[in-house]
Specification:
Layout (H helix, E strand, L loop, with lengths): L19 H35 L3 H35 L9 H13 L3 H21 L2 H9 L14 H35 L14 H28 L18 H26 L1 H4 L3 H30 L3 H19 L6 E4 L11 H11 L11 H8 L5 E2 L5 E7 L2 E9 L1 E2 L9 H7 L3 E2 L1 E9 L5 E6 L4 E2 L7 E2 L9 E3 L5 E6 L2 E5 L7 E2 L3 H10 L4 H4 L8 E3 L4 H8 L4 E2 L4 E5 L2 E12 L8 E2 H4 L17 E2 L1 E11 L5 E5 L5 H9 L12 H4 L6 H14 L4 H6 L4 E2 L15 E5 L8 E10 L7 E6 L10 E5 L9 H10 L1 H12 L3 E4 L3 E5 L2 E11 L7 E9 L2 E5 L2 H8 L22 H22 L3 H32 L1 H7 L10
Parallel strand pairs: 1-27
Antiparallel strand pairs: 2-5, 3-4, 4-7, 6-10, 7-8, 8-9, 11-15, 12-13, 14-15, 16-18, 17-18, 18-21, 19-20, 21-22, 23-25, 24-25, 25-26, 26-27, 28-30, 29-30, 30-31, 31-32
Helix pairs in contact: 1-2, 1-15, 2-4, 2-6, 5-6, 5-19, 6-7, 7-8, 8-10, 26-27
């Protein structure tokens, strides 16, 4: 009967086809849309290739891309074949259609609808699972490269006596293969079961047999494969116990076997492995027996065994064998954990020595101690965490320059003598450009200019940094060098240089100076294909047609040192703090990089982001690797990034590290030998802060090598909070040139302190030799104080300082003038069995943009000095020629704050402050300026009068008062 289209009686309605013109237009639009999508995909690939080629690391790009493509293709094809073959096989094994049951009749419509498209459905399903599996496998490129290139550690774990490389390189790959096998088996089982059900091989509601013999055999084989893989998983789980994290009383981050693991879980896994193998054989046997009776019984036995043997039995062992005498049972395993952890974090050779911490001057020669201070440490008064505003105010020069909020500490020779130096680069600040537009942002303002340095141990008369390299262009310390900074920590935008549009080099009294980039960095934009690709990649169409781009134009991007090193060495973990150094006439960013793994047996894990956080990482500097969990770390690579042309160089630093050797095999030619490091660069290499912070966190527990003491936790330390920070973050480590006990001379060091757990007194002092030229580079020395001796910790010392009467009086005077007091880094130095605390005190006056060093706090034993200079404070502490300390409260002398001159000066200061506030309300700026001058003059008179009164009081107090010193501060731990 003909189809009438519109209904039983209605006429057929013809729908007209689109005209040829419309069809051509639609086809053209479709082709153009497809080409546009392909070009967008091509642009990302092409710009990446161009960038890697521009930095001479194209092998990293090709190796990484080739590995990803290979894994994607192989595992995607394997998954597609596994699932597709089982779908095809299930279809081939379908039973002939006989008398149709109600169940089969309801499925018939689905069979009929799929029938014309069976091949396409098969292709679609296999392609989908292949793409998903391939994408997942491509993400395992690091695991594959480590497995195929792995080198031995030549160290064996204490339980299974396998080389450490098995756990770090082999086991992760085996686990991936196992997970892939499980996924393939499960997907194949689901797909085969659905096809068998669709074509009658499986029946859910029909009477008779639930499955045909063919379906039973097919599905049994797949179940046998799944159970066989489970057997392999049980076997690998045995080795996984060595890298398993678990809890143990009085410990954190425990990794490795415990008593219950070695004596319950380990034999249980072996038994379950055997049971799973037997169960798998029973499933395979259904090919002949055609019944699921035995396999189902075997599978049930395996599940029951997993519950009883793998769960209940270990719980019984833990409850009735371990808990009643946990310390004795766990002692051998704690010892293994201690040994492995100390080795994995490079802290096994830490030199722990007892240190009395007694700073009593009784019976000692104060003059000799005073002289020993200078030979013991170069006490840095310029805090790199506070003086950035001073650099900004004094050396910014133009609003479109900036310095980082936290400067760096390095060593340079000043007057022929190596000295701790604070350094910062004058980088570009786009927000300070007078007029923002595309040309200015990316063509005109392209680079910063110059490295600014200041002495670390002294300031000028006003308390500002004593600059040794300053001005624009910079003059002083370095002599002639390439000062332009195209690559820096603050340089995040792209720039287009070297073309028709000239750049602003710098501006001076003689006017603006232009410049055109001469370096070979960046990607050439003369090619129109390159321009189009970058226009798409950066979402900026002007790159394609702008007249400012022409012959010689190059685009610079990925401009931060951390970003560049991460790109050329994606297998490294980058330190959070790159620092600049002027080396052989060039500014080089020095970047520390680490090799890590979380598969070191028995070594406890730590989270890098948490361990490396301190009071400076709250917005001032980066945190390394965020939430990466590791249990092995080495500073294996020192990298440099040229600030002018962006050249990245990687140097092998740890020549024994097997993880680095593995990556060097995977990426040959990318890492230079350690011998390639020049002497000029070696002068500026140092021990990295983030590694030191990881090690100090582990040493707070693992300085103990005795398993009993470790278990009780009685000797646990913690990193104290920063006493100068109100947010409760950990105190940062400090670079300082100093001499530890048993050392012959000062060396550039990285230092920190510990306090006992939940206490404020000092528990230990730790320093590492940070000078790369030193034969003891990386040597960790710990001074452990007696637990019964109460020596001030950093926060307690700060509290004593703040409550010391002369300090409190002076702070109150400053605050009455609306000045802001800022405490610098609290430095701790071991000295003759005691500990010397030194803290610079900065004052940010009303209306001032930056703090100035005004006072220095010094403590040794029960004496506190608060003087204008470090020398004066040290002289007071050790009873030298300048005035002795303030007499104790028991002395019958009036406090300096009661001196008539001081009182009058304070009254004048209050009057000046009131006048200034009134002038401020009336917006009378001239009167306000006069009031501020009067306020400063009054405060200066008050400070001088107070000091003079203190001198008189000290002289009249006699020797007794001088010996007692400033007892208001209290003795340590009082």
């Amino acid at each position: 009967m003909p189809d009438r289209g519109g209904g039983p009686t209605g006429p057929r309605i013809r729908v007209g086809r689109p005209s040829r013109r419309i069809r051509t237009l639609l086809t053209t639009l479709g082709v153009l849309a497809a080409l546009a999508m392909l070009f967008v995909m091509f642009a990302g690939f092409w710009t990446d290739w161009l960038w890697y080629r521009s930095v001479d690391y194209s092998s990293v790009f090709t190796t990484t891309l080739g590995t990803k493509i290979g894994l994607f293709a192989v595992f995607g094809l394997l998954m597609a074949l596994a699932v597709g073959t089982n779908i095809w096989l299930a279809h081939r094994l379908r039973p002939p259609l006989s008398a149709m049951s109600m169940e089969q009749q309801s499925l018939d419509r689905y069979r009929m609808s799929i029938a014309p498209y069976k091949k396409w459905v098969l292709l679609a399903v296999t392609a989908l699972v292949g793409l998903v599996a391939g994408a997942s496998a491509a993400g395992q490129w690091r695991t594959w490269l480590q497995w195929v290139n792995g080198v031995p550690f030549h160290q064996k774990d204490p339980q299974f006596h396998k080389d450490i490389a098995f756990y770090t390189f082999d086991l992760p790959w085996y686990r991936f293969l196992l997970s892939f096998g499980f996924a393939a088996a499960v997907l194949s089982l689901i797909a085969a079961a659905l096809v068998h059900y669709l074509y009658g091989g499986l029946r859910l509601t029909s009477p008779g047999h639930r499955a045909t013999a063919a379906a039973t055999g097919h599905l049994s084989v797949l179940l046998g494969i799944f159970v066989g893989l489970k057997a392999i998983a049980y076997w690998l789980d045995r080795y996984g116990l060595a890298v398993k994290s678990s809890g143990l009383k009085s410990t954190d981050g425990w990794t490795g076997l415990r008593y219950v693991d070695a004596n319950a879980y380990l034999p249980a896994k072996t038994i379950l492995f055997i049971i799973a193998l037997i169960c798998a054989v029973l499933f395979f046997a259904t090919l002949w027996r055609r019944t699921w009776q035995l396999p189902v019984i075997g599978f049930g036995l395996m599940v029951l065994s997993a519950v009883l043997i793998g769960g209940l039995y270990p719980a019984i062992v833990q409850k009735f064998q371990v808990q009643p005498n946990e310390q004795a049972k766990e002692a051998p395993y704690i010892k293994k954990n201690i040994t492995a952890t100390r080795e994995a974090y490079g802290i096994g050779d830490a030199d722990v020595q007892n240190y009395k911490g007694n700073s009593d001057l009784t019976g000692k020669d104060p003059e000799k101690l005073r002289a020993a201070v200078n030979s013991t440490a170069s006490l840095r008064l310029l805090d790199p965490n506070l003086v950035s505003p001073a650099f900004q105010q004094e050396q910014q020069v133009k609003g479109y320059y900036q310095f980082p909020s936290t400067l760096d500490v390095d060593r340079y020779k000043v007057d022929g003598k190596e000295q701790d130096t604070v350094i910062g680069l004058r980088e570009l600040n786009l927000k300070g450009i007078p007029e923002r537009n595309w040309i200015n942002d990316h063509f005109k303002y392209t680079h910063g200019y110059g490295a600014i340095t200041a002495k670390g141990t002294t300031t000028d008369k006003a308390g500002a940094p004593d600059f040794t390299a300053k001005s624009l262009p910079t003059e002083g310390l370095f002599g002639p060098y390439e000062q332009r900074v195209y690559y820096g920590e603050k340089t995040t935008q792209y720039s287009i240089v070297g073309g028709p549009q000239e750049e602003l080099d710098y501006s001076s009294d003689k006017g603006e100076r232009s410049y055109s980039y001469k370096g070979k960095s960046g990607v050439n934009l003369s090619n129109p294909v390159n321009r189009a690709a970058y226009a798409v990649a950066f979402g900026e169409p002007q790159i394609l047609y702008s007249g400012a781009i022409g012959k010689g134009s190059r685009i610079l991007y990925h401009r931060t040192p951390k970003e560049r090193v991460e790109a050329v060495a994606p297998w490294l973990t980058i330190d959070g703090d790159a620092y600049p150094a002027v080396v052989d006439g060039r500014i080089q960013w020095i970047v520390d990089a680490y090799t890590t793994t979380n598969g070191y047996p028995y070594a406890s894990r730590t989270t890098l982001g948490d361990t490396t956080a301190d009071s400076l990482t709250t917005g001032q500097r980066a945190v390394v690797a965020q939430q990466n969990q590791v249990n092995y770390i080495r500073n294996s690579v020192k990298a440099t990034v040229d600030a002018y042309d962006g050249t990245v160089k990687l140097y092998q630093w740890d020549e024994k590290d097997p993880v680095l050797k593995t990556w060097m095999k995977a990426f040959p030619g990318t890492v230079k030998a350690k011998s390639a490091i020049g002497s000029a660069l070696m002068d500026h290499l140092r021990y990295p802060q983030d590694l030191f912070k990881v090690q100090r966190e582990l040493l707070s527990r693992y300085h103990v090598t005795d398993s009993e003491t470790f278990y009780t936790g009685s000797e646990r330390w913690e990193v104290p909070d920063d006493p100068t920070n109100t947010k409760g973050n950990a105190v940062p480590p400090y670079y300082l040139s100093m001499k530890m006990p048993r050392q012959e001379k000062q060396t550039f060091s990285l230092t920190t302190t510990f306090t006992p757990k939940n206490r404020t007194n000092l528990g230990a002092f730790m320093a590492v030799d940070a000078d790369a030229k030193s034969k003891d580079y990386g040597k960790i020395r710990i001074l452990k104080l007696p637990s019964e001796t109460s020596v001030w910790g950093p926060r307690l010392a700060q509290g004593k300082f703040n409550s010391h009467t002369p300090v409190a009086d002076q702070i109150n005077i400053w605050k009455k003038g609306d000045s802001e007091v800022e405490y610098g880094n609290l430095l701790t130095v071991p000295l003759d069995g005691g500990l010397l605390y030194v803290e610079p005190v900065y004052l940010r006056g009303a209306g001032s943009n930056y703090p100035l060093l005004k006072k220095v706090l010094v403590n040794y034993g029960d004496k506190i000095a608060f003087r204008d200079t470090l020398d004066e404070a040290l002289d007071e502490i050790f009873g030298s020629k300048t005035a002795p300390a303030k007499p104790s409260e028991g002395t019958q002398k009036p406090a300096p704050s009661q001196d008539p001159t001081v009182k009058q000066a304070l009254k004048d200061a209050q009057d000046a402050f009131t006048a200034g506030q009134k002038a401020l309300e009336n917006k009378n700026w001239a009167e306000y300026g006069k009031a501020q001058d009067a306020l400063r003059d009054a405060l200066d008179r008050a400070a001088k009068a107070e000091a003079k009164a203190a001198e008189k009081s000290g002289d009249k107090g006699g020797d007794k008062a001088g010996d007692k010193g400033s007892e208001q501060g209290g003795k340590p731990g009082s």
